[in-house]
Design goal:
Blueprint (H helix, E strand, L loop, with lengths): L1 H9 L3 H15 L3 H11 L2 H5 L1 H17 L3 H18 L1 H12 L17 H18 L8 H16 L6 E2 L7 E2 L4
Antiparallel strand pairs: 1-2
């Protein structure tokens, strides 16, 4: 079992994982320009071939400008970078309108679109970026570990009805424990 795990780990490119994590971390921290630059260094075709992702990155950049109170810069950015995309795509236009609406409210946290300023929106964008990177590297966009752990728990539950065996009771330590007899 350990040899098999070692072989699986040997096939993993740790550099690509680190690079992907850096891009994701930059988005989560609100450093969208840095994330775009790192993403382009990692694979310059990702944003070129995924207009929705590029739009969401640009939208997040606008949100970050609004968050720090750079209103003039935000308006200029919206006009120059996002408005042309809105002319091409109705969904993008609606998203731009929601984002720019944040500028109208004094208390942006309580406006109808205040959720755009929530950390969860950054996480959503970061997740979208992560999935795009994984797809570009011919990996699955969703992590396998949560599914494997659910399968382990289900399998142990099924076996508990039929056999007594050493099992993993604590997933964080993954120690096999002898059955209580």
């Amino acid at each position: 079992m350990r040899l098999r795990l070692f072989v699986l780990l040997a096939d993993i490119d740790l550099t690509s994982i680190t690079d992907r994590m850096e891009v994701k971390r930059a988005v989560q921290a609100g450093n969208v320009q840095e994330a775009i630059e790192k993403l382009n260094d990692l694979n310059p075709t990702i944003l070129d071939t995924n207009p929705q992702l590029y739009f969401h990155m640009q939208q997040q950049k606008l949100i970050e400008l609004i968050r720090v109170g750079k209103i003039n810069e935000a308006l200029q950015f919206a006009q120059e970078e996002l408005a042309p995309r809105g002319e091409e795509n109705q969904v993008f236009l609606e998203e731009i309108e929601k984002t720019v609406a944040l500028l109208v409210f004094e208390d942006v946290k309580n406006c109808p679109y205040g959720e755009l300023l929530d950390v969860s929106h950054r996480l959503k964008t970061a997740s979208e970026v992560n999935a795009a990177i994984l797809i570009s590297q011919n990996h699955e966009k969703d992590a396998k570990l949560p599914s494997l752990l659910k399968m382990l728990i289900w399998t142990q539950d099924q076996l508990n009805e039929k056999a007594v065996y050493p099992q993993i009771n604590n997933l964080s330590t993954t120690v096999l424990e002898d059955p209580a007899v």
